Amino acid sequence: MAVRAPGDRHLPDVDWPAARGFWEGCRAGELRLPRCADCGRWVWYPAPACPGCGGERHPWTRVSGRGRIFTWVRVHRAFLPGHAARVPYVTALIELEEDPRLRLAAFLREVPPDGPRIGLAVEVVFERIDARITLPAFRCVTGR
């Protein structure tokens, strides 16, 4: 679910119960994902039952925020007016270091001059939109 925001940006519904813990973590400057209390498997995207054991207790657990680019795209046209000032920008699917099945889509920051590449190391950064909404993004880390 998304809400309409100033500047014609579509932003997440931070009150949606299934993802509330994720957005609360972002506001606190932490990347948090649900993890099964029974078997330890990450349950991402949030679901009522663990895909590994069927467990139903998934506390929101802090992850490192480090990962690698799984795939990426450079966007040359803003499909939403609120993103026009960002063009061109890079979005990426990030594979988190905790588990290769953990992948998050986000804006990519501090892209090297020669461009991003699959496998490039990244780390989470946060973009505060307002008092309620903070979005995760990832910045490229060279030398890792």
The major beta sheet can be summarized as: 5 strands, mixed, barrel
How do the strands line up in the largest sheet? 5-6-7-9-8
Helical content (DSSP H or I, runs of 4+): under 10%
Distance between the termini: 35 Å
Count of alpha and pi helical runs: 1
Which regions have little confidence, pLDDT < 50, spanning 5+ residues?
Answer: 1-7
Strand content: 35-45%
| Mean pLDDT level | 90
| Alpha-carbon Rg, integer | 16 Å
Shape: globular
Tally the structural domains. 1
Structural category is mainly beta
Output the helix-strand order: EEHEEEEEEE
Give the total of beta strands.
9
Describe it for me?
- The strands form three sheets. A five-stranded mixed β-barrel has the order 5-6-7-9-8.
- The chain has one domain (2-140).
- The chain has 144 residues and is mainly beta.
- The chain has one helix at 20-27, and strands at residues 2-5, 9-12, 32-34, 60-62, 66-75, 89-96, 103-109, 121-128, 134-140.
